[in-house]
C-alpha cells in the first residue's frame, strides 16, 4: 500500500508531488474536481463521477484534448496504490501561466490526483449540524475548486461543536451541507432540494433516490425552510465521504427523537449492501 499522486500523467509518491506556483488552480481556483471512494479495491461510481466531471469542465469552458487519457490515469494510479479502501481526489485546472485573469487558449491544462487510505470516521451514531448562511456563488452545480465559503462554513460549524454546516440561502431554505447533500424524511417521503444551480448534483443523493424505490419510500424535490428541516421526522447527510449519515441535531435541537432515524438506518444499510454488490 502506497499513498500516490499523479501529476499530468506521471505517478509519484504523494509527498513528492509538485505543482507550479502559478497554476491557475492555485491563483484563481480556476479548475474543477471530483472525490471518489474505492471499496475493496474497486473505484465506486467512477462513471457517475466522470460524467459530472465532464459536465463541470464544459461549464467552465475547459476542454482538454486528452480527457479520456486522464480517466485511464485515474484507474492506473489507483491500481498502483494497492489501497483497498481509499479516497481518490482528482482535479483539472486551466494550467500555469503568469497571473492574468483572462486566459490564453494555448495553456496546457494541469491534472493532479491523489490516493490515500480512507479512514473511517465512525459516525454511524449520527451527527450534529449547525446552520450557516450559504454565501456561495450562483453556480454551485459546478464542482469548482473555489471552496472558501464551504471551508469557512465547515470551520464555523466545527467551532460550535457540530460536524457539518447546514447551508441556508437568503430565502431561508436549506441548500446542502458544506461538503455533503442534506435530505429530510417526512412520513415516508425523502425530501431533497430541487436540483438547481444552487446545489451540487450529488452522486450519493442519486444512489439514495434509486435505493428509495426498493424501500418503498417516495422521493420528492422541494425546498425546505430551516424550521421545516429541523422539524422533519428524520434528516441525513449524503456524500462520497459521509456516505449516508444521520443528523441527530440541528442548532442543538433534536431532529425526531435525537438519534439516527429508522428510515435513515434502512437507507444506510441498503447503500452499504449496494456497495458490497458493486452495483454502481
Ligand atoms: N463533497 N454538496 C457539496 C457542496 C459537496 O462538496 C459534496 C461532496 C456533496 C456530495 O456529493 P457526492 O455525493 O457526489 O459526493 C454535496 C466532496 C466529497 C468533497 O468535496 O470532499
Radius of gyration: 19 Å
Low-confidence stretches: none
The secondary structure category is alpha+beta
- Tell me what portion of residues adopts beta-strand conformation: 25-35%
Q: Report the average pLDDT across residues.
A: 97
Number of separate helices: 7
* Percent helix range: 25-40%
Present as ligands are:
N-(5'-phosphopyridoxyl)-D-alanine
SSE topology string: EEHEEHHEEEHEEEEHEHEEEH
Q: Which sheet architecture does the biggest sheet show?
A: 9 strands, mixed
Overall spatial form:
globular
Distance between the termini: 25 Å
- For the secondary structure, the number of strands is 15
Task: Note the main attributes of this structure.
280 residues; globular; binds N-(5'-phosphopyridoxyl)-D-alanine; 6-stranded antiparallel sheet; single chain; 9-stranded mixed sheet; 28% helix
How would you describe this protein?
Strands 7, 8, 9, 10, 11, 12, 13, 14 and 15 form a 9-stranded mixed beta sheet that branches. The model has no long low-confidence stretch (mean pLDDT 97). The chain has 280 residues and is of the alpha+beta class. The protein is built from 7 helices and 15 strands. The radius of gyration is 19 Å and the shape is globular. It starts with a strand and ends with a helix. The chain binds N-(5'-phosphopyridoxyl)-D-alanine (PDD).
